[in-house]
Amino acid sequence: AIKPNTKLIHFETPGNPTLCICDIEAIVKLAHENNIQVSVDNTFSSPYNTKPFEFGVDYVVESLTKYINGHGDSMGGAILGPKADMDKVRYESQVNIGGCISPFNAWLIQRGCQTFPLRMQVHNDNALYVAKWLEKQPCVSFVAYPGLPSFKGHELAKKQMKNGFGGVLSFGLKGEHDLYNRVVTHLNVFTSAVSLGNAGSLIVFLGEDDERMYLYPEEFHNGFYRVAIGIEDKDDLVNDLKQAFVAEGLEVVD
Q1: Is 87 left (phi over 0), alpha (psi -120 to 50) or beta?
Q2: Which of 3, 53, 66, 106 is most buried, taking the most CB atoms under 10 A from its CB?
Q3: pLDDT tens across 29-62, in order?
Q4: Are 228 and 197 in contact (CB under 8 A)?
């Protein structure tokens, strides 16, 4: 809620891990009417898919670690905004808390930038392909991905995400928590790890012990996978999930 001392509204879209879509223009309108600045974390979408400044935000935050670097071998971040404000941020972060990227990390990220648009389109295409396949499976309880017409925020996502819907999706299985853990042990292409934007696909199970579970939509409450789709062959990804499901006796359809 907006309070008398509110100076900045910061949000991410799509949101982690529910992939919920925030209406950037609506938030900007409300904030600016109250003399409040707006900052958006654009990591899950990436600047290839969404350009938040076109919707009137004041600042954009990007995790360079993820899609922009793209190889899972460097850490960095960027805050984008008016030069006068960025000069203040740079001074505070570098002088007071040592927020200065190492030369080698900077070089790795610069290298990744050269192939970023090419990689990002594959992330987009692969994620949509996998999401559509998952949505057809009888053993899957739900799929959250902005590119699916069944997704609650799909129309808004189409407005804000011009080239695709990113590489992250979440889905649930019809089964107990132990089933989630067993399925992961059968995967060969996917790696069980927490990150996104890498060349390789990652999967992580989030269960009832997730301290934020009460904030998520009801369909998430029995546990779910968050999947960061990589740039492997899309059929290899589907076949890996298929064989893992079959290994646990789950019904699979083509």
Answers
A1: alpha
A2: 66
A3: 999 999 999 999 999 999 999 999 999 999 999 9
A4: yes
How far apart are alpha carbons 196 and 209 in whole angstroms?
A: 22
Contacts of 76 (CB under 8 A, 6+ apart): 63, 64, 65, 69, 101, 105, 106, 109
**Distance between CA atoms of 249 and 70, rounded to whole angstroms?**
35
In this prediction the pTM is: 0.95
CA end-to-end span of the chain: 46
Domains of the chain: 8-113 (3.40.640.10), 116-247 (3.90.1150.10)
Backbone angles phi, psi at 24, to 5 degrees: -60, -50
Question: Mind listing the pLDDT tens digit for each residue in 88-130?
Answer: 988 888 888 888 899 999 999 999 999 999 999 999 999 999 9
The answer to whether 81 and 59 are in contact (CB under 8 A) is: yes
